Amino acid sequence: MKRLTTLLLSVVAIAGLSGCQKDAEQAAVAAPQQTFKWKLVTSWPKNFPGLGTAPERFATMVNDMSAGRLQIKVYGAGELVPALQVFDAVSQGTAEMGHSGAYYWKGKAAAAQFFTSVPFGLTAQEMNGWIQYGGGQQLWEEVYAPFNLLPLPGGNTGVQMGGWFNKEINSVSDLEGLKMRIPGLGGEVLARAGGTPVTLPGGEIFTSLQTGAIDATEWVGPYNDLAFGLYKVAKHYYYPGWHEPGSMMEFVINKTAFEKLPKDLQAIVRVATKAINEDMLAEYTTRNQAALTELKEKHGVDVRAFPDDVLSKLQVLSEQVVAEVSAADPLAQKVYNSYKNYRDQVKAYHAVSEQAYINARD
Amino acid sequence: MKRLTTLLLSVVAIAGLSGCQKDAEQAAVAAPQQTFKWKLVTSWPKNFPGLGTAPERFATMVNDMSAGRLQIKVYGAGELVPALQVFDAVSQGTAEMGHSGAYYWKGKAAAAQFFTSVPFGLTAQEMNGWIQYGGGQQLWEEVYAPFNLLPLPGGNTGVQMGGWFNKEINSVSDLEGLKMRIPGLGGEVLARAGGTPVTLPGGEIFTSLQTGAIDATEWVGPYNDLAFGLYKVAKHYYYPGWHEPGSMMEFVINKTAFEKLPKDLQAIVRVATKAINEDMLAEYTTRNQAALTELKEKHGVDVRAFPDDVLSKLQVLSEQVVAEVSAADPLAQKVYNSYKNYRDQVKAYHAVSEQAYINARD
């Protein structure tokens, strides 16, 4: 209010000397209320449930909070850049911002794999704790700094499902020769268990399972899996998703673009990402439970647990894989040390809180 | 930008007719960039760890995002109004906003008890799902509408601890005659198990336990309990906190004050509450685990689980108490039906996700 009054008075004072019209326009040009237009590229189909609706909500929040001073246009995968070029596009400034998953960028920085989800790693609640109060954010910024990127949490799917199988998994030996669509660290673990991990984009999963080109696939959880119709081409739906126990999405922001924003718009962007990080997990928790009920009751899906000895074997192999990946890169090792230390402590805490409570209640 | 330019041009146009100075002042008064100053009253000591730091962070976020156009001053309990008059003060407009816990207002509206935590009820993640995507928010607004209040989630402590005891709890009979500081629904459950619930403000707990005036107390969790020094005056630290499995704090906003804000400031307030709701749980998760380690390793605290049969009995009694409280009030019954339906479904989902995963990992 004060600033505007001063501005108006100064305009008028000058106008009194040299004519109102011209100086008013000059003052308006110098005003701080500049409008910014940003492009936000994503790795998801436009408005894909959960993953794709989150950046749309983010853009709406920012637009509303800034009264239109920061307008963000969201692009689905392939609209401006391909799904897996989000990191490069934002790093180079083709887009000011992106929404994706850090583990896609392991080729750029091995340490990036710790900032989405790790086999037998942190849950959503634990991940938020590590990132925000356990030193994770600082490490993440260090990993992305060479790319001129500021990373921020962008939502979480919660614990994913183990996947869709056309073969029963009754023992570790049933994993041998299993052709399964499972990317990243989870795929490497499967390979060590004797399986054959396959990387396929989402759009090819259904047909590959139908034709028998693959024996199994993981995707996300009931909400997204129901939308894909995977229950039509697979016999068994296994749990839990040991390979992705709480996948955190990411916002990446081009630092040069961010620094051009006034402080209030910077704060608006930061706070909106926190709100989205909270919102996505709430949405998945609710939609997943409704979808699971529909899968079981309407589609008669056979939902079953991996046997304990299979999970134990996968956990041993996971620890080996993650330790080896970390040992090969000094920054990955630094991140892993922090992550592992947090996980060990939080396990002890959850043994007396979340885990103890849910086991007592259910 | 356009708006300001138009404003300046119109000021100047009028000035051309009748003199710049006077009309500029009138236009400034009508300008949209008004500054608002709000009071935010809380039920916590000023800057109390977690509960009290959250509203301070909220005020900072709002100030930063609004470039000082909405300035919020936070008051600790008793500074402007007593801890348990937050609801009334905001309802009547003494303060524009408050930060507290809904279950304190059961005397105003029985249904309010469902919006903090319920014995054997929802965890933090589940509560966020119910409130935001399961119909909880709409019901909460209905409960608070007669009081001219808009409620919004304001953080979560996660699963609390069962409490500090100077007597071992080895069977249900050990609860008989137990004098324990435990308010609300949890206290009613203890009473039905033969105990004597006592209501005491936080500041009197330590001495009451030390003198033997009470045999036991619950408070929050390791982070807050360590700060209170309760380990010095109690022998055993029990888990889990069956009575408060995920206590959601609340922001309450005077609706008349809220409606006076321009749309962008309204959006800023709403989004900042979501960010705080996410932030507090991350903070508690991290600080609780560090505090638990300190309690065990530095202070040698005996951390132990309630026996299974004690938890089973408390669960049966809890279901009875909650059903009876609901049956006595139509709106409480409506809220309970929604809450219970959500809990039953989410239990089924967590059996294959969070619960299955944590049990496999740990």
Provide an overview of this structure.
The structure is a homodimer of 362-residue chains. Chain A has 362 residues and is an alpha/beta fold. Chain A folds into 2 domains: 36-156 and 246-285, 3-Layer(aba) Sandwich (D-Maltodextrin-Binding Protein, domain 2), CATH 3.40.190.170; 160-243 and 301-328, D-Maltodextrin-Binding Protein, domain 2 (3-Layer(aba) Sandwich). Helices cover 50% and strands 14% of the residues of chain A. Chain A is built from 14 helices and 11 strands. Chain A has helices at 2-18, 20-29, 53-65, 86-92, 124-133, 136-144, 184-192, 205-211, 222-228, 255-260, 263-297, 308-327, 330-352, 354-361; strands at residues 36-42, 70-75, 97-100, 149-156, 163-165, 179-181, 196-198, 216-217, 236-239, 248-254, 302-305. In chain A, strand 1 (36-42), helix 3 (53-65) and strand 2 (70-75) form a beta-alpha-beta unit.
